[in-house]
Amino acid sequence: MDVSLVTALGLGLTLGLRHALDADHIAAVSTLVTRERGLVRSCLLGAFWGAGHTLALLGAGIAVLAFKLTITPGLEAALERIVGLVLVVLGSHVLLRAVGGVLLHAHDHAHDGVTHRHTHLHLGSPAGAHVHLVRLGGRPFLVGLLHGLAGSAALMLLVLGTIPSPIGALVYLFVFGVGSTAGMLLLSGLLGLPMALAAPGARRLQAAIQVVAGVGSAALGIWMLVGPAA
Q1: How many domains does the chain have?
Q2: Is 95 contained in some domain?
Q3: How far is CA 77 from CA 106, 129, 135, 146, 154, in A?
């Protein structure tokens, strides 16, 4: 294998790992993992996000290589605003879960023939509950797809022009995707630690974590929508 290609692949892996730390990625995944209280499930969310992100990059890369397309500044700005809108929606949803009445669910329980109504706080699926992978991964997969061409990913596509072999360029894209998926898996695990370690009865702490994630995501999303145009 050509030394320059090996160097490019190593760079792709490194850039992929770094790409997972982009502010918009951290904000989006933080809103997703605060819904979960299991560390494994939080890591899976990051993996699904990475899978969607990689698929978008591969699709864009094939289009760039096959049809000699380019990502114009206008298109990149539009993609950034779409991501900003998604962050606002995700952040708002988390805030509603944290401070709204949707957190409270009333359940009737029978004890010694007498029915009692109890109100429970639900911040996510109970630990150990079986949830189908499609249901668990659908949202982060779609968010990953939307993030696939925004931010530094667009800059990454510029590297394709420096790789003479189309196969080598696609391998570079795949390696970049593997790096970003691995980075996001680790990041989502770290972001999910506070919820995983919080005591089941620590409702205020759990809600506070969600509020922080929701406010951060919504604020960054609003900045992405209006900041560049200011």
Answers
A1: 1
A2: yes
A3: 45, 41, 31, 13, 11
